[in-house]
Amino acid sequence: MALKNKVLLIILDGQPWRDARRYMGNLEGWVQSGEARVWKMRAVLPSTSASCYASIHTGVTPQQHHVVSNESIFRVKQADIFSQVRAAGGKTGAVTHSFWSEFFNRAPFDMVRDIEYDEEDSPINHGRFHTMTGYGHKNQMTPSDADLFATLTMLTERHKIDYGILHTCTLDSMGHRFGHDCGEMDNACFAIDAMLAHFLPRWIKNGYEVIVTADHGQSDRGHHGGRGEDQQDVALYWFGGGDGPKEGVLLDQLQLAPTILSRMGAPIANTMKAEPFLK
């Protein structure tokens, strides 16, 4: 099966809608120029990181896949974007926290075996992971986002992946440390926006459609997991084709997986019930 499009999914963990629309000047500039579109998307409940990761990729709720907390880490049973792209003959790549490898390739995560792998027959063909071991309030243990963006770019150019995901915990960790109404968060958003802006045009030039979004938001005090616009609502920026919904339509996080597969021309799993938001 020949895939129609190549897609990259960029997850800026923990960035709420309000921060994206105020501080991501490069992304907003592309929206203003008509080169990108943006919608509001609402995360699942609980709006906990691991729960959102599993729902983003499977298109089912935490109540169905059973990843109900950051302590519920196991190989998810449902079909996901990786498995469906592989079924269509595509190559996949991931530059993410190790949870994604455990959910969609194998668990538990072996730091030596799984920190980096290139496996022809795995759901994730080319994986580059980090664990953030030692994470805490005083040391967030997050890699440089420029390094992560460069690593994803390497996978696209060296291994010619058809689908790739990048996930960074920088903003989530900053929110937990400092909250959101502060200079530290303003500068963190400014910095990651600038780093992303150096790589995004290169991905597009290389033929990729790109989604930039978040898994969940955060309260002003840096909390998430519960209900509310502050904890659940995120921006979704789209750099690509297709007919999207009108401005002001609220997207459902469960629409992400079927939308990506639809754009690529890969089969949508029968467990993914939400409608793609791009036609």
TrEMBL record:
Listed InterPro entries: Alkaline_phosphatase_core_sf (IPR017850), Phosphodiest/P_Trfase (IPR002591)
Classification via Gene3D superfamilies: Alkaline Phosphatase, subunit A
Protein name: Nucleotide pyrophosphatase
GO molecular function terms noted in the UniProt entry: hydrolase activity
PANTHER family noted in UniProt: BIS(5'-ADENOSYL)-TRIPHOSPHATASE (PTHR10151:SF120), ECTONUCLEOTIDE PYROPHOSPHATASE/PHOSPHODIESTERASE (PTHR10151)
